[in-house]
Design a protein that fits this description.
alpha+beta, seven-stranded mixed β-sheet, 51% helix
């Protein structure tokens, strides 16, 4: 490409300002949107890539459940030396944790509890101190940089002492042992601080669980010795000696290794990590590429629609001896100028759009700016791709004709059967129909989730985490709550509904036969079922002595799964007392977890007076009455528990949070569909120019022979309708497959009805006809003399 090509390209662009402006806007929008989506996808795929020795870190799972007990972990360390370093961790079970400095409480939103090997496996960058040594001391804690600065400012806090307050451990001194740098946003770990497991071993019940073979409460991670073969380690795990393990647990133990780098997508049951959806990530990449292609297709169609302005120039150039390559270079010069303008717009607008997207979507985008080196590489990769498509394709199309034909008007039938008239329109509206179908199906699924009855009442209920102060003064607290007229009822549970993780594996005697069972274990107040409107199917409710007797109430799923005929003959062996563990009742199934997973077996035990989570049913006719009720409840709380502030959430809102990612995915598809439709409409303008140009004579002849305007418009629009119909036939199976795969993430899902795809096709057809009808009307009302004057 020489300077003459650029002069010619600039002259052509100035003569066709409207077409050039449309191309610039379309390419700019597509580049900005595609850039953001590809950055999101790239960062999802690169999650945890900054971790040192990532390839050597593995998750140890038991029967596909990434949870182990401390004794099993010790057994592995003894018998499988290739594992190198093994670490156990989980999130702190206390609903509330505070660090107090100079009279100010700082809440630790996410506290990780880990053994002394954690920072040997996960070698995060350190700011101050030694985190490995800190976790070897049960009176120290490791903070992240941002949390340390929030408490201490910009000074080095290592060695300073704070007051540690949690639901289970009251005011105790704890020292800052180390501060690590903040985790990158594309890390699957998310915590404010790390507490040594040894700190919690001061609690007798915690210590007992820690030593129990059957307490599968910890995630286990291993850093293999350098050079170890993970396949050989996997074989060793299958052959470990289990003689030290209780006989009842041996047969069910199935150990396996999973690379930590794949845990983000492949092990969503690890609650300690953030997780992504591999299929959603693939869809994001596909949408980014499709939007980019749509803009390129529009450019090609708009340029070739103006072919009459190009062909004579190209014909003259060819007649003077220029090769096809020089013609292509001439066309690519125009593309280069447009893309330089597009790049300038992208560099100005992208940071603003990038900032808006990070606030509006919970995307796993990097903390660095849009000009971070990887992001810049993606941007210039997009520009290079667009330059090749927008330069080579129209250049090839306009250079392939013979010189003699270029100096004359091209035959109509060449354009009539051309690729642009058919393939480009089909491609554009195939994409639009797929995205429109996606919007309808995702919205329908989200509506199903929102309107689905989980089996318990969740409206007008607030949730608050209790603490040791409240639990030790429970009668005074209950009396205070009962005195508040705006509170209808209250109850307590061991874990919040929708976020239950306590699983129990034990032995049950059923009709004289002993069997191994596993279920979700849930401690509740005796009035729990009445409070939430959960109906009893058989048996009796909890009695006064149910807590001491370890009585159980099972849900219907447990009765079915464990094949219990008569509950009177079923006894769960939680302790060694044969008189305990009676199944006294059965309640109907309800969703104690999100609708992504099916209802599982659940066993409920009486919590007695109080447990960790309190639920309060509020009767308030207006906002002022609600505020007054909350104020009274907070006053009662603060009088009994001054060290723990009263914090509450609404149960219905916390339930909706379980589907936040699904709602955001719907918003993403909606915006992508709007952009794709706008780009398709821009492309239709170019294609309509193209078609009207090739049918000018035909329209003139029809008008001379008496054709009405409506007949001419019908003739012109019919071709577009046919191609939208072809797009519908192509898009429907693709959309069905994509949405069917997405719905696999839900245990309860909507049906893929035929009318959804039909509606998407009709909308696409309506949009296409509305877009081209103006051009059709102009062509149909044009004076036929203008078309035939030179014939």
């Amino acid at each position: 490409m020489n300077i003459q090509n650029f002069k010619l390209a600039i002259r052509t662009l100035l003569k066709n300002k409207t077409t050039a402006s449309i191309n610039i806007v379309g390419l700019s929008v597509a580049t900005i949107v595609s850039l953001l989506l590809l950055i999101v996808a790239f960062n999802e795929n690169s999650t945890d890539s900054s971790l040192k020795n990532l390839k050597d870190i593995y998750v140890i799972s038991e029967s596909k459940d990434p949870a182990l007990s401390k004794p099993i972990s010790d057994l592995l360390v003894q018998q499988v030396p290739e594992l190198g370093v093994v670490s156990l961790c989980n999130y702190e079970w206390s609903p509330q944790v505070f660090l107090k400095s100079e009279g100010t409480n700082f809440k630790v939103e996410k506290l990780l509890v880990a053994d002394s090997n954690y920072f040997k496996v996960f070698q995060f960058p350190v700011l101050w101190g030694n985190p490995i040594e800190a976790l070897q001391n049960n009176d120290q804690i490791v903070l992240t940089e941002s949390f340390a600065r929030k408490v201490f400012g910009n000074i080095n806090p290592v060695g300073k002492t704070l007051a540690y307050n949690s639901t289970y451990l009251n005011v105790r001194a704890i020292q800052i042992g180390a501060v690590i740098k903040d985790l990158p946003q594309n890390s699957s770990w998310e915590f404010d601080a790390v507490l040594p497991i040894a700190a919690n071993l001061k609690l007798a019940w915690y210590n007992n669980l820690y030593k129990s073979w059957g307490a599968y409460n910890y995630c286990a991670f291993a850093r293999l010795n350098e050079g170890s073969n993970p396949n050989l380690v996997q074989e060793h795990l299958k052959k470990i000696d289990l003689s030290a393990m209780p006989e009842s647990d041996r047969d069910s133990l199935r150990l396996s290794l999973t690379p930590f780098k794949s845990a983000y997508f492949d092990l969503p049951s690890i609650d300690e990590l953030k997780h992504g959806n591999k299929y959603v990530n693939l869809i994001i990449k596909i949408i980014a590429i499709l939007i980019l292609l749509l803009a390129c297709v529009n450019y090609v169609s708009m340029v070739t629609a103006q072919r009459e302005k190009w062909v004579k120039t190209i014909g003259i150039v060819r007649s003077l001896g220029s090769s096809k390559n020089k013609v292509i270079a001439m066309i690519m010069a125009e593309s280069s100028i447009i893309l330089m303008i597009v790049l300038s717009i992208v560099l100005i607008v992208s940071p603003l759009f990038y900032s808006w997207a990070k606030k509006s979507f919970d995307f796993n985008v990097m903390d660095q700016s849009i000009f971070y080196h990887w992001n810049t590489l993606i941007l210039f990769g997009i520009i290079a791709f667009v330059w090749l498509i927008t330069g080579l394709v129209p250049g090839y199309i306009l250079s392939k004709h013979e010189t003699t034909l270029l100096l004359k008007r091209l035959p109509t039938n060449q354009a009539k059967n051309g690729f642009l008239k058919n393939g480009l329109l089909v491609f554009q509206f195939s994409v639009s129909i797929i995205l429109l179908s996606g919007i309808f199906i995702i919205e329908r699924q989200n509506r199903l989730i929102s309107n689905n009855n989980p089996g318990f009442q969740k409206d007008h209920i607030i949730v608050a985490s209790t603490n040791k102060d409240i639990q030790t003064k429970i009668q005074a607290f209950k009396n205070g709550v009962r005195s508040i007229s705006g509170i209808v009822d209250f109850t307590f549970t061991s874990e919040p509904l929708g976020n239950i993780h306590n699983n129990t594996g034990t032995t049950m005697t059923n009709q004289g036969n002993e069997q191994q069972i596993g279920f979700v274990s849930f401690w509740v107040s005796p009035n729990f079922f009445n409070f939430f409107g959960i109906k009893s199917k058989s048996g009796i409710p909890f009695q006064e002595n149910s807590k001491e007797n370890n009585d159980f109430i099972f849900n219907e799923k447990a009765i079915e799964e464990f094949n219990i005929g008569k509950i009177e003959e079923a006894r769960v062996h939680i302790d060694k007392n044969p008189a305990h563990g009676q199944v006294i009742g059965v309640v109907e199934n309800f969703n104690f977890k999100s609708l992504h997973v099916p209802i599982g077996a659940a066993g409920f035990q009486s919590a007695g007076e109080a447990e960790d989570i309190g639920y309060f049913k509020i009767l308030a006719t207006n906002g002022e009455a609600f505020k007054e009720t909350i104020s009274k409840l907070e006053k009662v709380w603060n009088e009994l528990s001054p060290n723990y502030p009263f914090e509450y959430t609404f149960l219905d809102r916390s339930w909706e949070e379980l589907y936040k990612s699904d709602i955001e995915f719907q918003r993403l598809i909606k915006y992508a569909a709007i952009i794709s439709i706008l780009l398709s409409c821009i492309g239709l303008v170019g294609l309509s120019y193209y078609v009207m140009e090739t049918k000018t004579k035909e329209i003139g002849i029809r008008k001379v022979n008496g054709a009405r305007v409506s007949e001419v418009m019908g003739m012109l629009n019919k071709g577009f309708a046919k191609r939208v119909a072809i797009a519908f036939l192509i898009a429907t199976p693709l959309a069905w497959y994509a949405m069917n795969r997405w719905l696999e993430n839900f245990a309860y899902k909507t049906h893929l009805s035929w009318w959804i795809f039909a509606l998407a096709g009709l909308l696409a057809l309506g949009i296409a006809l509305l877009t081209v009808s103006w051009q059709s009307w102009k062509a149909a009302t044009r004076n036929p003399v203008e078309a035939l004057r030179y014939e």
